[in-house]
Write a structure and sequence with these properties.
Low-confidence stretches: 282-288
Helix content: over 70%
Distance between the termini: 60 Å
Mean pLDDT: 85
Radius of gyration: 25 Å
Number of helices: 10
Number of strands: 2
CATH superfamily: MetI-like
CATH class: Mainly Alpha
Largest sheet: 2 strands, antiparallel
Shape: flat
CATH architecture: Orthogonal Bundle
Order of helices and strands: HHHHEEHHHHHH
Structural class: mainly alpha
Amino acid sequence: MFAFCADPRSIEGLTWAVCYLTSGKHMDFYWSFVVVFLLLALTAPLALAMGFAGAIAARSRFLPVRLLGKGYAAVVRGVPDIVFFLFFVIALDQGIEYLRSLAVCEDPAWPWQGLEFRVCPEAKVPLGRASAFWHETYSFGLAVVTFAIVFGAFAANVLHGAMQAVPRAQLETAEAYGMNAAQVFRRILVPQMWIYALPGLSNLWMILIKATPLLFLLGIQDIVFWARALGGAKTQAFDYPHPDWRLWYFLGLLVFYLIFTRVSEIVLDRVSARLNRGQATAAGEALRRAAA
């Protein structure tokens, strides 16, 4: 990045440290933090939407829909996250390529040849001639969908329980005032359920933060990948030789996650206090007594 960093072997001390920390690979390391934040920013609302849909389905009076909602939550919760991540990413990728092969391949055939999955080059997603950016974007998109499906199942359980926790008397009162089922759901049930859902969703957010290193298992160059790559011992064959520094890199990640989760706790506590103010809940009663 700097002109004096052209020959790393000719510098030392603080200058060496500046050049080392601003090298191209370290810039990729810093960018990987943005990747983590982007994953959380995209996954959280998508998982919440899938959880909301799953919770509504689980409450449906139509048996097939109700079984679908409960089955979605049960299947995903019953499989270890790592197993589901490794399986679903591969299955989704191959499913997309198979459907594409039916449209673009001249002779679309069953792609499985023994234990190998093969489609014509035109059906590959992304295409083999595509730039590295599109390959990385596609892998990241698969990761976002997989994270959303997994955490959406947990969100569905949280939201379903929150809906069940809303006092039945409130719903019956709304019905007595002439509201139909859709109005009761939209005006009474949904606004009230967030008070009961927030503690569970807060815990789920913390788990999602701690699950971001699973990107490393999906082949995405995240912060864990770069901490391991940069911290490993480098011989004189490298521009910046150094002993094994993985301890310090992973210590930095530990501090990063602790700070991130602490900031999240502060924000979520304030949101919880805001939602519980004036409500007939244990937290709302505590706020009322504190104000008195």
